[in-house]
Amino acid sequence: MDLENMTVSELARIVDQYGLTEIEISKGDVKVLLKRQVVLQEAKAIQTSPASAIPPQRKPVPDFSHITEVKALRDELATAREGLAVKGNDVPKGASSSERKVDGACVKAPLAGVFYRQPRPGEPPYAEVGQHVRKGDVVCLVEAMKMINEIAAGCDGVIKEFLVDNETFVEFGSPLVVLEED
Questions:
Q1: Three-class HEC string of 35-50
Q2: Which of 53, 61, 83, 112 has the most C-beta neighbours closer than 10 Å?
Q3: Ordered per-residue pLDDT tens for the chain, 182 residues
């Protein structure tokens, strides 16, 4: 760029072309400072499509080198589980719903949380094994995020078994209580 032969209009064109607010050029004793005054206007809402509103961003490619190790560990764990598998209904209390077979109607957890048999510590349980309950009677509760959710029997019947120990974490859909329907 030859500063001696440049005019102010050429500098202004460069400022406009590149969206600059100011440009300063100096060569020897000659110094030129060109500033453009920016007037802020009230922004108006412009409706754009989501695809054009946000420029695409490249995400880093994840490192999957550990997957073979994870697969090997998963296979080893599955083999160990098969070796420890218990036949029939001899599955211990607290076993997951996929490992447990139940005879009768089952009251299941409608959400994940902590299972309780009584409304408050020190109070008697809602129901006992052998007790007759009617559809809608509260048989236990599940606490999730400090919210108490009473769990009701889905049918009339006699409680055969509680499948979960008190104050145990349960997952969504876990069987909690087995009822022998009337």
A1: ECCCCCCCCCCCCCCH
A2: 112
A3: 565 666 777 777 777 777 777 777 777 777 777 777 655 555 555 555 555 556 666 666 555 555 556 566 666 666 655 554 433 334 445 444 445 566 778 899 999 999 999 999 899 999 999 999 999 999 999 999 888 899 999 899 999 999 999 999 999 999 999 999 88
Helix (H, G, I), strand (E, B), or coil: what is residue 20?
A: coil
Residue 79 in tokens: 């083999």
Q: 9 by DSSP, 3-state: which? A: helix
What is the DSSP-derived secondary structure letter of residue 55?
Answer: -
Distance of CA 28 to the CA centre of its chain: 63
Sole residue written with tokens 């695809």 = 51
Choosing among 1.10.357.10, 1.10.275.10, 2.40.50.100, 2.40.290.10, the CATH entry for 105-181 is: 2.40.50.100
- Where along the chain do its domains lie? 3-35, 105-181
How many C-beta atoms lie closer than 10 Å to residue 137's C-beta? 15
Specify the DSSP class assigned to residue 134.
-
